Fold UvrABC system protein C.
Amino acid sequence: MADPASYRPAPGTIPTSPGVYTFRDTDDRVLYVGKAKNLRSRLSNYFQDPAHLNPRIRTMVHSADHVQWTVVSSELEALNLEYTWIKKFAPRYNVMYRDDKTYPMLAVSVKEQYPRAFLYRGPRKKGVRYFGPYPKAWAIRETLESLTRVFPVRTCTAGVYRRHEQLGRPCLLGYIDRCSAPCVGRVSPSQHMELVDGFCSFLAGGNTERVMRDVRHEMEGAAENLDFERAASLRDQLGAMDSAMEKQSVVFSDNTDADVIATAGDDLETAVQIFHVRGGRIRGQRGWVVENATGDSDVTGEAGTPALLADFLTQFYGQSAELSDATESAVGGNSRAAASREVTLEPVPREILVPVDPDEIDDIDGLSAWLTDLRGARVTVRFPQRGDKKALMDTARENAAQALRQHKLARVGDITARSSALEELREALWMDEPPLRIECTDISHIQGTDVVASLVVFEDGLPRKSDYRRYRIREAAGDGHSDDVASIAEVVRRRFQRYQQDKTAVPAGDDAGDRLEGEVSAAEAEKGAKRFAYPPQLFIVDGGRPQVEAAQQVLDELGVTDVTLVGIAKRLEELWVPGDEYPVIVARNSPALYLVQQIRDEAHRFAITFHRASRGKRMTRSVLDEVPGLGPKRRSQLVTAFGSVAKVREAGEEAVAALPGFGPKLAAAVMAALAPEEHSDG
């Protein structure tokens, strides 16, 4: 790998003008494309200490052989050129936003003589208009079933169309008036295109209310003229349109034209969700999960959000504009089809709502100007902070979080992926065999108080919750502050002391960690003892080098030599091995790192759950609970009458005895229970 210092340009030779730069390898292949308002300032960031670079960028600068740049006259030109080159070269180190192939869409093949409406999955193609994506395929089928009652457009495949064209008779949909039957010449191409225009316009929200109003007036007119058969047919059409509209939630009362973009992520990946809102309704939703290009994280855990949004807006709307232009060219001189483009989803809406302050996005002014140029009208980028739009942003963010969670679960849920992760973990840690049993511990506390620990167990890459353990840490630090190193050492000692002392013993109580309540019956206890008694192949501690060294010292004292120990540090997701000065760096997109992260996160979740439960019990426990003969009702009566336990002490035995239902004997028992608390310092 090349040393970046070997090809670093002299600082004085780099211009300070706006421009686009490319990092290239020895074969002159483009590895990365970027833009800058000031090329000299931006490029100097890539040649700093590699330890301070994001792992992706660090790998890129070491893989590159030289850097080139092109000066342009403005930031807007730099943005356009960057987008063009990313599309042309597809650089491996740029974040690429590709269509999610799993979501179904409703497509209309506008380039055909008789356009067809159909369900579609896959990348978008030229000459086809898309509506959605929809969350489920059945939603598209129901929408088609409803709208073809009003707009009987063609839905059959090319083979079915040609067969019935040769037969000279329509299919069943043509007989029941759910298709205009262009195959047998019932309608001309222009008449069918009118139906397609109405169909697309209705879905895009451009004339929803007008179409429904016209149908309603026609129905009322037919009823007045005593044409009840026609009125009934129009009534059914209104019902079908209402049914189709119910599938799209009303989010605003006004005619809002906006895209809502939300993100959720961690240090490695970020999920992006976009909601298309047209005419006050959500017309579509799309999602991506991408690897972070930067290592910056804000307090919400959305890594590199401003930089990610700049890349996303450029690629997404640039591609949408290209597809829109291609669609317009495909319909050619058909004026009616070209006119209908105005009422479909615009590639760039009037308003783009983002999850951060737009001023934090790099070159937001140039980006807004570029978006305005694409749309041909003013485009506003802003951050909603209150009202319905803020609520919709929260909904989009929750969808992004769910998408990220499902993505990570899918990585470890498949047996092939789990096997690959375990094998990669074996290679990274120089183990003889893949770690089929992995245990991980984590500490939870609040400023050194109520310190507890968790121990989670994974076998074959899946959690074995019956083997989870919980520990209350006994050795608290003397200064009252947290000592995670000592706590980790205590958990390791207690876990492996039990293993050394009695390999068949059933861990019970606080000495060996508490078994999860309600998960293992008494009959399973002895069977589970041996399952927990044998050691793991890999033991993970949540922490860096100090925690790993402390745990290894305990294992050495106990003579445990058949367990591989490793720690995972949260800051850079590094793996620390005992005795090594430097951490083990695993690829950020590695299945092995995903598995270790999942195990660490599960240990963290379990520790926090136990800590909250323990703290809640301690906070709700009262000295009055120990008074014989004082039930919950009397305890509540006592506290209500005096206000607090301290005021009960101050009131005295006579005041307590005077309460209804009490008496001298119960009052004496209450005061006897409170007396040690009152004189504990004497």
In short: The first strand starts at residue 19 and ends at 24. The mean pLDDT is 76.
